[in-house]
Amino acid sequence: MRIIKVSATQSTNSLAREWYQSNKNEEAVCITAFEQSAGRGQRGAGWVSNAGENLTFSVIFPNPPIDVAAQFALSAAVGLALLDALKKLNIFSLKLKWPNDILAGNYKIGGILIENILVNGSIGASIIGIGLNVNQTFFQDLPQASSLKLIAGNDFPTDEVLKYILVELEQMLEDLKSQSHIEILRKYEGELFRKNKVSTFLLPSGDYLTGIILGITSTGLLKVKVEDEVVQTFELKQLKLLY
What domain range includes position 20? Predict the structure, then answer.
């Protein structure tokens, strides 16, 4: 996979989108930044990363073999590929926190933000944005954040970590052509953080909800069993897992 390195950008996803608009082709391309000043996460949150200590990059994936209705399968597959890469770096106790956070133990070490470019009702390209905490050791006001260095006790060359990840991503992108989306989602459920455990959620109203995470729907909604054995489904903005 071609790798484009930039010294600084506001957001690798935004830069990748601009690059795609003027460089449409059939090959996947990775854009990685030494410093990202306005990275984006889920729920409109920012992604804060110390310059040079972590990985902030985006992969442009033209013509992904998925329908718009099944786009969560791509997010799930990317998460699984990241876990495979990190395991090869001897990082364990890994889980995927719905919808697309990477956890080691109870600590967040990475996140995924996928933005799809639609062309005539189909996905013309997927911009796969990934942030991974590699060598950063201090996270101000983020008590649940961690990094590969804090977990393993040693530095990691960021270029080497990126190569491990891109190998797994390229294999995942190839497998998407033949792998069942249902199978991908079932594998994702097998790595789902706090699955089948009693958990507490914060609702937009400020109220709390107690339930058990059962899995996800085919479109990526979270299935939670609440009182009286009732199973409800939730979108990202409808609840926040407390842990």
Answer: 2-190
Q: How many domains does the chain have?
A: 2
Please give the mean pLDDT across all residues of the chain.
93
pLDDT digits (tens, 9 = 90+) for 21-42: 988 777 899 999 998 876 555 5
45: phi then psi, degrees, rounded to nearest 5? -75, 155
Rounded mean pLDDT of 224-243?
A: 94
| CATH number of domain containing 220 | 2.30.30
With vertex at residue 37, the alpha carbon angle to CA 46 and CA 167, rounded to the nearest 5 degrees, is: 80
* 191 SS3 class: coil
Strands across the sheet containing 122-132: 2-9, 29-36, 55-62, 122-132, 107-119, 101-104, 94-97
- As a whole number of angstroms, the distance between CA 207 and CA 225 comes to 17
Asked if the model's pLDDT at residue 221 lies above 70, the reply is: yes
